Amino acid sequence: MKKWMVRSLLLTLILVILGGTFLTASMADKVEIELFYYKQEIVKQMGDMATAFCKKNPDISLKLTLIPNDSMTVLRTRMAGGDAPDIIQLQAYSAVFEFAQAGWLVDLTNEPVLSKVIEGAKTSVTYKGRAYALPMDLAGIGIIYNKDLFKKYNLKPPTTFTELQNVCAVLKKNKVTPFAGLFKVNWSLGHFISMVHSTLAGPKVMPWLEAMNAGKGSFADPINSKELFKIIDFYKANVSANAAEMDWDEQQAAFASGEAAMMVQGLWSYGAAIATNPKLNCGFIPFPCTDKAEDTKLLADVDSTFALSAISSPAKM
């Protein structure tokens, strides 16, 4: 039963486009599976996936639990307390490795679905030579910009930091907020700092990551920290005045309405912005951190994964 359930759930997750609902059972003997996830931008897709899965598997009901902020804190508490969700969305790399080391995840190495995953993505879920999750998407962080506003003010997508400064100056002169902010939750600023740090590190980023993983590196090693803080200060000076009060929904609304011309987000927000305003004409570019155009690159890697709990209830095992 367990082996069949693992394969059935994983095949559905990879074949059906991912967004929350709660599908209840009409039969008393149905098995309820809880899927825990944190990506609030895929609520609709997760609902569609749940509907498709339960239609194909009428003896299973699927409960979707969305925790967009501090999901890892909630997850660690639940796992340690024996209240584990059955399917878990985890960030790639460190979160998967942490849960695998704790013995909380099912080893998926020999599951056929992993043959559909490109080799370069498998490292994000591989701990001590074994695969413990299914990579779900590749994502990078950059600037999503309003093409119509840029055209209106004769602006071109910036390729250097100086050009970005000039774009912001023109927008502010015309009473347009340069960046829709999102400072209410910590993950947004974490993404911003990670993006800038990686861009400034350039070719040094991979050796630095290896040193950090070996416990020998420092966050300041590959970059000039003054440059990092200069860009953080610039960003703070060009976001919405109430950025500290803005959550995901407020950021999306400010950008989609044209109140702000840009927002720093991941590729996952591109579709969400268009869904908020189907008439929105927007593009996606890397965030320039230096005055060398060749340094302005979009860094992308596996973002989220799905794993199966190794400590689900005995009845489900």
Task: Give a quick summary of the entry.
This protein is of the alpha/beta class. The protein has helices at residues 2-15, 43-56, 71-80, 94-101, 119-122, 147-152, 161-173, 186-201, 205-213, 225-237, 248-256, 268-276, and strands spanning 31-37, 60-66, 87-91, 126-127, 130-131, 134-135, 138-146, 177-179, 260-266, 282-285, 300-302, 304-308.
The tally of helices reads: 12
What is the helix/strand order?
HEHEHEHHEEEEHHEHHHHEHEEE
Instruction: Count all strands and give the number.
Output: 12
CATH homologous superfamily descriptor of the largest domain? Periplasmic binding protein-like II
Write down the domain tally.
Answer: 2
* Strand order within the widest beta sheet: 2-1-3-12-6
Question: What portion of residues belong to β-strands?
Answer: 15-25%
CATH class of the largest domain reads Alpha Beta
Q: Looking at the structure, what is the overall shape?
A: globular
Give the radius of gyration.
21 Å
Mean pLDDT: 87
- Architecture of the largest domain, CATH level 2? 3-Layer(aba) Sandwich
Unreliably modeled segments:
1-7, 14-27
Q: Whole-Å distance between the termini?
A: 7 Å
CATH topology of the largest domain: D-Maltodextrin-Binding Protein, domain 2
Q: Report helical residue fraction.
A: 25-40%
Layout of secondary structure:
Elements: H1 2-15, E1 31-37, H2 43-56, E2 60-66, H3 71-80, E3 87-91, H4 94-101, H5 119-122, E4 126-127, E5 130-131, E6 134-135, E7 138-146, H6 147-152, H7 161-173, E8 177-179, H8 186-201, H9 205-213, H10 225-237, H11 248-256, E9 260-266, H12 268-276, E10 282-285, E11 300-302, E12 304-308
Helix pairs in contact: 8-10, 11-12
